[in-house]
Design brief:
This protein has about 500 residues and is an alpha/beta fold. The protein contains 16 helices and six strands. Strands 1, 2, 3, 4, 5 and 6 form a six-stranded mixed β-sheet that branches.
Length: about 500
């Protein structure tokens, strides 16, 4: 059951048990007033029953979204986030409570449900609404008929949000698969009178450690160890198949049943690569607990291959927008057209220039931008023009423009570094695909919130500086006016000594 609360953000008289009142200049108070909470209640209500008489009352959107924002900004775990909320009155004000609560407002496990309920849809809607309000996009600017010419700069790029998994190797994956199959066999046989088949688990463990503990080994030794583990896994799968002829799989838990399906597919992939002596296969599984994760080859010096989700983002006026999210690797240059159209839908006009990496500069994208009057950064395709006396100035301008675009495009890389070092996108701890997407969307949302807060504090500081300068100017003017009317007031008194 969900009950909507009107005027949820209007809690100016927050009740404190120890007296006093909250500071209006606090960052949580400012941020709480900057977010239009009520605009997204309808999307959040879809997760609950329409009846007002069934079930306990659910926590509001402000509590759910605000708790995730607090967790992302503070970089805390679920348990520590709830403890911080129960101890800080400013955080409780940010969540929309009318008075300070001494006890925990909810259990830490509720944060998992908040991520599932909100999802990327609501988080992206909040991001669009907040950034639109911050950049002061009016309804006149959204009208396509009134927009004349291209305006603004669009910066695009892609990166990987690595997940928290152990570095995958074929030998370790097969050993883990064998151990999970042995537990499944034990579960099926313990619930019935079926005799346990021989699994050779001690021998298989000894064979695995004899290779895994070596610091240096030859390829032939690794291939031999993988072949042995494949045979152990195949034997266990055949044993489970024979047991299932007399015992249904209903005795397994949901997790065990899922592990059985994942291990079966993992064995098929590893067996294919072993027989064909290759190291690639479509939709390769690199984690049994998270089978949706795929290897993303990025070609970076730190790690050439990362394991997680690949995302494409746009940076406009310093604000970041999530354009694409996928666990499968893809060519980010294919997203450029959709990113341009999203820019047009968002602002009502096309960008003047696009600052991007060299991978985006293919002939299809160049022709598409040329038809729309958009300048695509980078050097022209093909052989460079020969330098002559006539085109020296032109080539110099092109070179300066390319250098300027490359310098300004660093803002996208700076956003990636900020998201991975300051926030949680450097190592995503969530396990489910839905919660991983929500975590990435939340990181981008909080980054934009922090930029808005910096704008507010800088504008406040500029206003105070302007008032100070104005007061000094007024005082100096009054002093000059006073001295003009009383010229003898500047003379120092003469002290006579007798």
């Amino acid at each position: 059951m969900y009950q909507f609360r009107h005027n949820q953000e209007e809690f100016e008289n927050f009740i404190l048990p120890f007296g006093g009142k909250l500071k209006s200049s606090n960052r949580w108070v400012i941020l709480g007033k900057a977010i239009p909470w009520q605009e997204f209640e309808d999307s959040y209500c879809d997760h609950f029953s329409k009846s007002t008489k069934r079930g306990p009352r659910a926590l509001t959107l402000r509590v759910a979204l605000g708790s995730l924002i607090i967790q992302e900004k503070l970089g805390q775990s679920d348990e520590e986030t709830v403890m911080q909320i129960s101890e800080n009155p400013y955080l409780q004000y940010f969540l929309g409570y009318e008075s300070f609560l001494m006890e925990k407002p909810y259990d830490a496990s509720m944060l998992v449900h908040f991520r599932k309920r909100l999802g990327a849809k609501i988080l992206n809607e909040v991001n669009e609404a907040v950034t639109k309000r911050a950049t002061k996009i009016t309804s006149d600017q959204e009208d396509k008929d009134d927009a004349e010419g291209n305006k603004g700069i669009l910066k695009v790029d892609a990166t990987c949000a690595p997940s928290d998994i152990k570095y995958p190797t074929d030998l370790n994956l097969l050993n883990e698969s064998r151990e999970k199959l042995e537990k499944i066999i034990d579960t099926l046989c313990d619930k019935t009178n079926v005799k346990k088949p021989r699994t050779y688990r001690k021998k298989a463990r000894k064979v695995y450690l004899s290779t895994a503990k070596k610091r240096n080994f030859q390829k032939s030794q690794m291939r031999k160890a993988i072949g042995k583990q494949l045979r152990f896994v195949r034997r266990n799968l055949e044993s489970i198949k024979k047991i299932c002829n007399t015992i249904p799989l209903t005795g397994l838990s949901t997790k065990e049943h899922k592990d059985l399906l994942v291990v079966s597919e993992l064995y098929r992939q590893q067996d294919f690569m072993y027989k064909n002596n290759v190291h690639t296969v479509d939709d390769r599984i690199v984690s049994i607990s998270q089978p949706h994760i795929r290897p993303i080859v990025r070609g970076k010096s730190k790690a050439k291959t990362e394991f997680g989700a690949k995302i494409s983002v746009s940076v406009i006026n310093g604000f970041t927008y999530l354009d694409r999210f996928s666990f499968d690797s893809y060519n980010e240059s294919l997203d450029l057209k959709e990113q341009i159209e999203s820019y047009h839908k968002r602002f009502g006009f096309y960008p003047e220039a696009i600052q991007c990496d060299q991978i985006y500069r293919n002939r299809e994208n160049i022709n598409y931008c040329k038809n729309l009057g958009i300048r695509l950064s980078g050097l022209p395709l093909g052989r460079p023009k020969a330098k002559t006396a006539e085109n020296t100035i032109e080539l110099k301008k092109i070179k300066e423009t390319v250098k300027k675009d490359a310098i300004e495009r660093i803002e996208v890389e700076r956003k990636f570094g900020l998201a991975k070092r300051r926030y949680s996108m450097g190592l995503v701890m969530e396990k489910l695909p839905l919660t991983v997407l929500a975590a990435v969307s939340l990181t981008i949302l909080v980054m934009n919130f922090d930029k808005i807060l910096r704008w507010i504090f800088l504008s406040l500081f500029s206003l105070l500086s302007f008032i100070r300068i104005l007061m000094i100017f007024i005082l100096e003017s009054m002093e000059r006016l006073y001295f003009c009317k009383n010229p003898y007031s500047r003379l120092k008194p003469v002290v006579a000594f007798t």
